[in-house]
Amino acid sequence: MSREKDKKPHHSAQSDAALKTAALEAVLLEKGLVDRETLDELIDFYQNEVGPRNGAKVIAKAWSDPKYKQWLLSDATSAIASLGFSGRQGENMVAVENTKEVHNMVVCTLCSCYPIPILGLPPTWYKSAPYRSRAVIEPRVVLEEFGLRLSNDVQIRVWDSTAELRYLIIPIKPKATENWPEEKLAKLVSRDSMIGTGLPYNASEVSV
Ligand code: FE
């Protein structure tokens, strides 16, 4: 079998869309119909607020409901769709669970494949060449740069996304959150904790 055949497609269709978007953005900026600052604010809003909140609801449900967590681990696409989150770039989802022994993190070494329906737009660093190459070569160092220092006996598993498979990390549920309702648990789930480059917030960091 040729190596070419082994290569999984990433998002050639999206590249086309990305080009069209960039062209549209250039025209809008040139004509003065939008300004750069507003555009950046909008992107930031979708990157950090809207998108990841969907994923946070999925994680909060998995933390609260063991049956749902099992479903999420065995068929993430259906379990996520049952909460109303589906669509392009979320068609084939895989959920992996962090444990005391194993910490998972996600990268797309070839481009920037990302589970948009549950995490929104990928952050700039996720698309950057250094993250894409170094996450695989020296994940422990990369995590330290994100401020996440893991004990040496914790194994790090790196998952490489493709157009066919997008990953969601189920972080370890923070301590002292027993009997918390899902809506409150969701506040603990940071975007980076679902990519594996961060951890959820501590219980004490979340207001009621
Ligand atoms: Fe990709």
Summarize the topology:
Elements: H1 3-6, H2 12-30, H3 36-64, H4 66-74, H5 76-81, E1 93-97, E2 102-107, H6 116-119, H7 124-127, H8 129-137, H9 139-145, E3 155-160, E4 166-170, H10 182-186, H11 191-195
Helix pairs in contact: 3-4, 8-9
Shape: globular
Q: Residue-averaged pLDDT, rounded?
A: 89
User: Which percent range describes the beta-strand content?
Assistant: 5-15%
**What is the CATH level 1 assignment?**
Alpha Beta
* Unreliable segments of 5+ consecutive residues: 1-6
CATH architectural arrangement: Alpha-Beta Complex
Q: State Rg.
A: 18 Å
Number of helices: 11
Number of strands: 4
Cα(first) to Cα(last) distance is 57 Å
The CATH homologous superfamily corresponds to Nitrile hydratase alpha /Thiocyanate hydrolase gamma
Biggest beta sheet attributes? 2 strands, parallel
Helix content class: 40-55%
Structure report:
- The chain contains eleven helices and four strands; from the N terminus they run αααααββααααββαα.
- It is globular and about 55 Å long.
- It has 208 residues and is mostly helical.
- The model is unreliable at 1-6 (pLDDT under 50).
- Helix 3 (36-64) packs across helix 4 (66-74) and helix 8 (129-137) packs across helix 9 (139-145).
- The strands form two sheets. The chain has a two-stranded parallel ribbon with strand order 1-4. A two-stranded parallel ribbon has the order 2-3.
- Bound molecules: fe (iii) ion.
- The site of fe (iii) ion (FE) has 8 residues, from loops.
